[in-house]
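User: Hello, can you help with two protein structures?

Assistant: Certainly.
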Amino acid sequence: MAALDDIEVFIAVVETMGFASAARRLRVTTAAVSKSISRLEARLGARLFQRSTRKVSLTEAGETFYAHARQAFEHATAAEDAVRQLNREPSGRLRVAAPMSFGLERLALWVPEFLARHPALQLEINLDDRTLDLIEGGYDLAIRIGRLGDSSLVARPLGELPVHLVASPEYLVDRGVPAHPHDLQAHNCLLFSYTSSGSEWKFRHDAGDGPVDVTVTGNYRVNSSMALRAAALAGTGIARIPGYQVEAQIASGQLVKLLPEWELAALAAHAVLPVRVQVPAKTRLFIEFVQEKMQARQ
């Protein structure tokens, strides 16, 4: 029977389409990956990959083996997790991908408590506003904010993040205060790059009027909501920003919340996971912890 570690290496090579990329994912050397695959091929008596200087591809035997190996590995991992749950103390490494601003201004505050609850866990968080590939990167889960694209990944809801429309007092003195969403078309609106709704802002009135969709324009587009906040604080324009990023600045008077009778659609937060037979205990505990914190609005 093939060793479980060799099967894990084989799956990593298939899913990352390369020995070097599999080595990065598993945090071993490329030579170790090559040795593991050679050992597996020798045990099976079949060549699993066609190798070239530019890429690797599965042979017919490799395709057959992968179809069974992936499922077998998932079941074996689930069995290990089930035993660890009996001990009620999850351990091992948990790799999480998360957006930069959410990671810095929320996760960074929560992580010490999570690690104090589960001291045997090793938590690794990669902060990046891009949508990272979970399988290629070897992540256990990713936190994604906003609309999810079509995907084979499994999504678990974490909660919702209110969104505020803000500008600095100095900008409003110079350009005036919008009284209706349509007034925004005469303003410099600051745009976030990593969203499908970038220049289309949707509003709903507290009294039930609407919805109102407004196409806005502006001279600044950036891929970081933290950079948007900095531009709004500097008086550059009006920004649409998650509430947790601007609540302190609104309270201090550095920013003004605009159109308070109109509600912007909240941003849904999800944990997305690679398809698995069973969610590992360490992953489940992290998801439940983030859900707890978001419900408490901490």
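That covers the first. Now for the second protein you mentioned:
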Amino acid sequence: MGDPVSSLRDYQAKAIDRARQCYAAGARSVLLVSPTGSGKTVILAAIAKGVVDNGGSVTVLVHRRELVDQTVRKLMAVGARANVVTVQSARVPRCSFLIIDEAHHIAADAWSAVALSAGAPRTLGVTATPERGDGRGLSGMFERLVVVAQPSELIAQGHLVP
């Protein structure tokens, strides 16, 4: 299957390192912000693999069924065993590490209830839009913020098109 970190783009590997530094410094929750098309699912799969390889258990919370399939494929590609559930799931497995895709939804009652039921001591949120549709930010939901890249940087590097 290969080393998932060796196949990461430079900005993705740096984001993972910065998130690890946040957890090492005592953070329990980190929000990764990265543009659409930048490989957020690749990043979360690599992080999940690291957690699992170190004996942890991972649950990934996604917004829609279509995202379950995409996320499972990325996790399988790197050999990371994790539970992937939608917010509509009746049961969320308890875990040591919770990853929340589309994390800008976390302030909604249904999302926060599902996230709490996972019982995870550490949480990673991933989003392209770090504010809710009602304009409220997420500062009360996550302790640390890691900006993966700006769209202009990724366009200049040829990873996104204008």
